[in-house]
Amino acid sequence: MQLVLPVSFRKQDSLHNFVEGKNSQLICHLQNVLNNKVDYPQASQRICVLTGGPGAGKSHLLLATCEQAALSGLTQQYIDLVHTINMPPEMLLGLISKDVVCIDNLQAVSGVANWQTAVFDIINQFTEAQGALLLIATSEPIDQIEYALVDLRTRLSWGTNFTLQQLNDDDKYRALENHLKAIGIAYTQDAIGFLLSRTSRDMHDLMLLVNTLDKASFESKRKITIPFIKTTLNL
């Protein structure tokens, strides 16, 4: 049984507007695989594990990779384990037929034996695939996940591992600016700087605030300005 979840790509989740910061090596690696610019004969180079805390951009990067694959005519599938952990793990069956598979929130399988076995099996299948890309993201380092299947830890370590580096303030400004432009929100230039200086510097928190501002801006049909931010966020 294969249960494939439909994925709707958001225009703000693309490789073009992903601010790479100190993650240029990772972005270059993914683009080379997707564009076949570099031949990676070793499966370990096409099985990538991304580790990064909340707000590091993992989900953005996985969705952007799937979007780029689709634009290139490749078959792809994105799966968020947080949303599927209570579903049958058999949904991963048949994914080897895809050119690109992105599995998000691996930490959700911590201590869950049947899902760990399913992830282990899909990694093994991708080691035999020619040219396919398997991208796995986790918010916890792979050595801190509770393994019911110890061999899964070995398999994850065997792939190409990247740690997503946090953005500096200039990169956060660019990331927020790219996001606002992508979703079509009108804003003043000083609004972004104000948001960064008066609220959390954590990108996950910042994106939640931007979503709140987006909704309020749409409902009130107002541009995002410093006074608007103060009123909406009670600053």
Automatic annotation (TrEMBL):
GO terms, biological process: DNA replication initiation; negative regulation of DNA-templated DNA replication initiation
Record domain Chromosomal replication initiator protein DnaA ATPAse: where: 14-160
Name of a matching Pfam family: Hda_lid
Protein origin, superkingdom: Bacteria
Domain Hda lid: 169-233
InterPro entries for the chain: DnaA_dom, Hda, Hda_lid, P-loop_NTPase
NCBIfam families: DnaA_homol_Hda
Official protein name in the record: DnaA-homolog protein
Gene assigned in the entry: hda
